[in-house]
Amino acid sequence: MRYSAEEKAMWLEDWKQSGKKAWTYAKENGLKAQTFVNWTKPKVKAEQSLIEIPAKIFQPVHRVQEILIEKEEVKIYIPLTICVDELSVIFKALGAVQ
Questions:
Q1: Pair 67, 76: CB distance under 8 Å
Q2: What is the C-alpha separation between 26 and 33, in angstroms, rounded?
Q3: What pLDDT, on a 0 to 100 scale, did the predictor assign at position 62?
Q4: Hey, which residues does 71 pair with through a beta bridge?
Q5: Mean per-residue pLDDT, 3-23
Q6: pLDDT, tens digit, for every residue of 24-83?
Q7: Residue 34 contacts by C-beta under 8 Å, 6 or more apart in sequence?
Q8: 62-70: long-range contacts (C-beta < 8 A, 24 or more apart)?
Q9: Residues 15, 40 contacting (CB under 8 angstroms)
C-alpha cells in the first residue's frame, strides 16, 4: 500500500509522541515494519556534481631508436637493440630470407 506524504507525516508524528521503537509501533499499527523504519531515517539528497580528475600524461623515460620495415600494407617497427637471431626470424617471416 502506498501512503501520501501527509499520511506518512501523520504516522511519524504519532510515532514520535508514542515513545516506542519504530519497529514496535509499525507492528502495533498494522504497517510494514521495514517500510516504516525507512520513513524514520533522515532523507539525504544526493548532489549531482562533477569531480575533476586531472589527467596525467606520461612521457617515456627514454625513446628506443627503431627502424621501420614496410612490405605492402604491413609495417614493422624494429628497435635497434634487437639481436641478429631475432632479426633473422623477422626477415624469414617476411620472405626476405630463405
A1: no
A2: 5
A3: 67
A4: 74
A5: 93
A6: 999 999 999 999 999 998 876 666 677 776 777 766 666 668 888 787 887 888 888 888
A7: none
A8: 69/94
A9: yes
Looking at residue 86, its amino acid is E
* Contacts with 37 (C-beta within 8 Å, 6 or more apart), sequence order: 22, 23, 26
Residue with cell 631475432: 86
Backbone angles phi, psi at 96, to 5 degrees: -85, -20
Dump the DSSP string for the chain: ----HHHHHHHHHHHHHHT--HHHHHHHTT--HHHHHHHHSPP-PPP---------PPPPSSPPPEEEEEETTEEEEEETT--HHHHHHHHHHHTS--
Total residue count of the chain as it appears in this document: 98
